[in-house]
Specification:
By secondary structure, the chain is of the alpha/beta class. Helix content is about 30%, strand content about 15%. It has a single domain, classed as TIM Barrel. Keywords: Iron, Iron-sulfur, Lyase, Metal-binding, Pyruvate, S-adenosyl-L-methionine. GO terms for molecular function: iron-sulfur cluster binding; lyase activity; metal ion binding.
Length: about 300
């Protein structure tokens, strides 16, 4: 069965025939499109390490946030069409460069081809963890397909309030679906594990990037994650929100979050007992932290 003939891989359930060149919400057909494949140093320390994470940026996105920092690729405006076999080669090339892992960024709509590429590359010697780096807007059925192939899940948990989710990502059902998907990720991987060098080898790290003016929703998300998963997962609280030109239509979020806002959120996490996690320090909300999507390594 070709899952892209009537595509329901992501929660948008477009049901378009991507095999005939049709494009759904993700803006992609069944042809793999990759915009960059390189060693990336700006992930959590246990993912980037000293050598970098072998990061593969896929073109297109099934979520499409109005504030997306990678809008050139999420809107399908950049990238190079490749075969599944070439993707497997890219994984091996990144491993040969010393990558600690293979980091799949915005992979949901290409999950079928990615699984095939993982199988091919494993047979040819790929032996580092696979990181599934996702917006969190996933179907449990799709995440179940990845069992045995993905070692580390790196999902966002963007919103709890359905009105905020609707306003900025056009998905009122975001939290109900993302929370179930994360539960499945934790079921698959169990409690998070690290190697002797502090690199994550198995488990789930939930990311939350707070939006300006929505501190209460961020606190609710952190409380939910902590109370639901406790020590099983790590939480990454991010302050890198960067308002680019496209955000001008939404003046209420057309600014960076303040230091006081972020400190209040981190203090809240500490107060409720969060111990396993990451915070960001310094000037992370800069466009210089957004890589060039110039087909490097593709």
């Amino acid at each position: 069965m070709n899952l892209m003939k009537e595509c329901i891989i992501c929660p948008r359930n477009c049901k378009v025939d991507r095999t005939k060149g049709n494009r759904g919400y993700c803006r992609e057909t069944d042809k793999l499109v990759v915009a960059r494949a390189s060693l990336h140093m700006w992930e959590e320390p246990c993912i980037s390490g000293t050598n970098g994470s072998g990061t593969v940026f896929f073109s297109g996105c099934s979520l499409g946030c109005v504030y997306c920092q990678n809008f050139n690729i999420s809107k399908g405006m950049s990238g190079k069409e490749i075969t599944t076999e070439r993707l497997a080669e890219i994984f091996l090339e990144l491993q040969s460069k010393g990558a600690h892992n293979i980091n799949l960024v915005t992979p949901t709509h290409f999950v079928v081809q990615i699984i095939d590429a993982i199988i091919i590359s494993r047979k040819k010697g790929l032996n580092i963890p696979i990181v599934y780096n996702t917006s969190g807007y996933e179907k449990v059925e799709t995440i179940k397909m990845l069992e045995g192939h993905v070692s580390v899940y790196l999902p966002d948990l963007k919103y709890m309030d359905e009105n905020i989710a609707k306003k900025y990502s056009n998905c009122q059902d975001y939290f109900s679906l993302a929370s179930k998907a994360i539960e499945e990720m934790v079921r698959q991987t169990g409690e998070i594990e690290f190697d002797e060098n502090g690199m994550v080898v198995k488990g789930v790290i939930v990311r939350h990037m707070t939006l300006p003016g929505y501190l209460d929703d961020s606190k609710n998300i952190i409380k939910y994650v902590h109370e639901t998963f406790k020590h099983k997962i790590y939480l990454s609280i991010m302050n890198q929100y960067t308002p680019l030109t496209e955000v001008s239509k939404h003046p209420e979020i057309n600014r960076k979050i303040t230091e006081d806002e972020y400190d209040e959120l981190v203090d809240y996490a500490v107060d409720i007992g969060v111990e396993n996690g990451f915070i960001q320090e310094g000037e992370t909300a800069l466009e210089s932290f957004i890589p060039d999507f110039d087909n490097e390594g593709v």
